[in-house]
Amino acid sequence: FLKHHLGASAPENPEIEALRLEVAEMKEKYEAVLEENKNLKTKV
């Protein structure tokens, strides 16, 4: 369902591509924060 509506049949939408990149960046930042949090907890 999602693939069909998000461009499996249509050419890639630049807006969707931008959103995908944004989500990927947020995941990286989130993982970095988790890692930092873990490091801080080990120091306490």
Explain what the structure shows.
With 44 residues, this protein is mostly helical. The protein has one domain. Helices cover 84% and strands 0% of the residues. The protein is built from 2 helices and no strands. The longest helix is centred in the middle third of the chain and has 30 residues.
Number of DSSP-assigned strands: 0
Q: What is the mean predicted local confidence, pLDDT? A: 82
Task: Give the end-to-end Cα distance, rounded to a whole number of Å.
Answer: 47 Å
Estimated helix fraction:
over 70%
Q: Biggest sheet, open or closed, and with what strands and sense?
A: none
Class per helix and strand makeup: mainly alpha
In DSSP terms, counting alpha (H) and pi (I) runs of 4 or more, how many helices?
2
- Beta-strand content: under 5%
State Rg.
Answer: 17 Å
Number of domains: 1
The gross shape turns out to be rod-shaped
H/E element order? HH
What are the segments in which pLDDT stays under 50 over at least 5 consecutive residues? Answer: none
